[in-house]
Amino acid sequence: MSKSAMILLFVGLFLAGGVISFWKQKLPKGVILVLAFGSVMCLASGLMRL
C-alpha cells in the first residue's frame, strides 16, 4: 500500500467524521455538502491508488 493512498484514505475518513460532527451541530447544509464532497473525493482517489 502506497503512502499517498494511506494519506488520502486517512484524510477522507477525517473529513467524514467532520461531516457527522457538523450534521449533529446543525450547521448549514452547504458547508456539510462541500465537506462530504471532499471526503468522497479523497476516499475514492485513495482507493484507486491501492
In the predicted model, the low-confidence regions spanning at least 5 consecutive residues are: none
- By DSSP (H or I, 4+ residues per run), the number of helices equals 2
Looking at how many chains there are and whether they match, the oligomeric state comes to: single chain
Mean pLDDT, all residues = 96
Helix-strand sequence: HH
Large-scale geometry = elongated
> What's the β-strand tally?
0
How far apart lie the N and C ends? 6 Å
- Major β-sheet, in short? none
> Portion of residues in helices?
over 70%
Q: What Rg do the Cα atoms give?
A: 12 Å
Structural class: mainly alpha
What share of the residues does DSSP label as strand, in percent? under 5%
